[in-house]
Structure formats: structure tokens, C-alpha cells
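Late entry, written up from scratch paper. The run itself happened at the end of the previous shift, but nothing got recorded in the book at the time, so transcribing now.
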Amino acid sequence: MKKYLNRKQIFAWFLQGMLFIAPLALTVYILVVSFNFVDGILTGIIVRILGFNIPGLGILVIFFFVTLIGFLGSSIIFKPLLYYFDKLISQAPLVKVIYSSIKDFMSAFVGKEKRFTEPVLVKVSHDSNLEKMGFVTQRDLRNLGISGGKVAVYLPHSYNFSGNLFIVPVENITPINAPPAEVMKFIVTAGLTNFDNQQGHPKD
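Output as recorded:
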């Protein structure tokens, strides 16, 4: 029984590791393959025309292409195509998990649906003054069957791209008067960095 539980736990850790690694690895792989492909084509063309190579031109082209896609994605004409693409991707089980993970993770930091914009201090218990720094990610939890008065708070780990999500009473959180990016940097570096603009402090 003990061996079975150990194997089951190891397998669960393996799957969790895959969920962490897969989106990042896929993103890096796509960027590397795209760069090599574009740079290989451009190198041949530039050498024929100019007689010499321009290092890093592939990076500029990819940057321009990604920026163009972002611009088109925010336009009214392109949104229906993006909707049908998302719908098509959602039909493929494995691809759906990887794609949605990357999309949700990226949209949490950039775009109109940024999530890490509300840094707070979370009181761990009423019996102590211990508090943790985190970000409110959801205030409406009715779809999960959780009653009002509670919010979802993400607590990033220091020196790691992971964290814990807690559902806590609203009265247990205190807003932090500091830029969200600075708070995130402060947490993931275990508090070793200073705030660039001002020292963060809880709002009154």
C-alpha cells in the first residue's frame, strides 16, 4: 500500500511538473524554431543582395510579426477569426491544455485582462500578526459554489515560477500601495530587491 501511494504521488508530481514546464517549453521551442527558420531565409537573401550578413535580423522580423499579430488581434475584424481559432483549439484535449495555459498565463501579465493588478497583504490567522503578500485574481467565486465575502488570492513563491492559490475572507486582505510589477518582483526575489519608485506600504 505504501509503495502504491508513493508511486501515485510521484506520478502526480510528474504531471504537475509537466503542466509547469509544457507551456514554457513550447513557447521557447516555437520562438527558437521561428528564429532559425526566419534567420536562415533572411541570411540567404541579404547575402545575395548586399554581399554580407546582418546578425539578429531574424529577431527583429519575429518581433515585428508578433507585434503585428497583437495589433490585428485587438482589431474588430480579426476578433471573429480569433474566436473560431480558440473554438477549434478547444476540441483537441492535449493542445487545449497547453494553449489555454500559455494564453491565460500571458494574459495575466499583459493585455486588457491583466490579473496581477491588485497586490494585497493576507492575514494568515487571527491569532498572529503574520501576513503574506499576494494578488487578488478573482472576486466573484459563485461559479465554484463559494459564497460571497471571499476572494481568490494568488501567493507567488520566492525564487520560483509557482505559487499557491487561497480563498480567503475579504476582511483578511489589506491592499498594498505599490506598483503590481514591483510587488511581484519583491516577492519572487524573497524581498531582496527594493521598490524602484517608492517603498510599498499598506493603504489606509
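The helical segments are 2-50, 57-73, 79-89, 93-107, 180-188.
(Scratch paper discarded after transcription.)
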